[in-house]
């Protein structure tokens, strides 16, 4: 069966519809060996629909070895839709403390105050004290009172 996996992923990569490709990859991810996770990330990267790409990154986050998480975060950073980016960002950052400083930096670049607050809200409970001060500084840059409160709740 091992020798068939590369061919299965090749067929998956050639599915034209983003949603169908993501559904097949999600189903396969439960069974394929770790050696194919790099290829799974490549398939994910090539999904045009940002919300589908984000959902797939969220799903695959716990399957990726730490060595792939940084690359997955780079894929996430290219998602233009801030809500989709935040979902993938927080899912990936929850997998490794090494990603927390990068996740905070990505959060800083989110334009929408509400979206930035949502990202901070998801990240803050996981952050060590050494990064909490940075998160507080970011929340102070949020001018909308409700969003600022949300960020630290």
Structural notes for this entry:
The chain is mostly helical and 153 residues long. Helix content is 69%, strand content 0%. The protein has 10 helices and no strands. The protein has helices at 5-13, 18-29, 37-45, 50-61, 66-77, 82-93, 100-108, 113-123, 129-140, 145-151. Helix 5 runs antiparallel to helix 6 (82-93).
SSE diagram, text form:
Layout: H1 5-13, H2 18-29, H3 37-45, H4 50-61, H5 66-77, H6 82-93, H7 100-108, H8 113-123, H9 129-140, H10 145-151
Helix pairs in contact: 2-3, 2-4, 3-5, 4-6, 5-6, 6-7, 6-8, 7-8, 7-9, 8-10
Work out the helix count. Answer: 10
Strand content: under 5%
Radius of gyration from the alpha-carbon trace, in angstroms: 17 Å
Counting DSSP E segments of at least 2 residues, the number of strands comes to: 0
Low-confidence stretches: none
What global shape is seen? Answer: elongated
- Average of the residue pLDDT scores: 91
Alpha-beta content class: mainly alpha
């Amino acid at each position: 069966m091992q020798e068939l996996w590369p061919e299965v992923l090749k067929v998956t990569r050639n599915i034209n519809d983003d949603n169908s490709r993501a559904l097949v990859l999600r189903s396969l991810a439960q069974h394929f060996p770790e050696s194919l996770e790099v290829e799974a990330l490549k398939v994910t990267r090539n999904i045009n629909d940002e919300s589908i790409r984000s959902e797939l990154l969220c799903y695959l986050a716990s399957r990726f070895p730490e060595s792939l998480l940084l690359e997955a975060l780079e894929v996430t950073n290219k998602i233009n839709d801030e809500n989709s980016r935040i979902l993938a960002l927080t899912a990936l950052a929850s997998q490794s403390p090494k990603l927390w400083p990068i996740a905070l930096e990505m959060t800083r670049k989110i334009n929408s105050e509400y979206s930035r607050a949502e990202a901070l809200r998801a990240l803050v409970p996981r952050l060590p004290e050494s990064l909490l001060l940075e998160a507080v500084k970011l929340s102070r840059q949020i001018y909308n009172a409700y969003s600022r409160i949300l960020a630290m709740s």
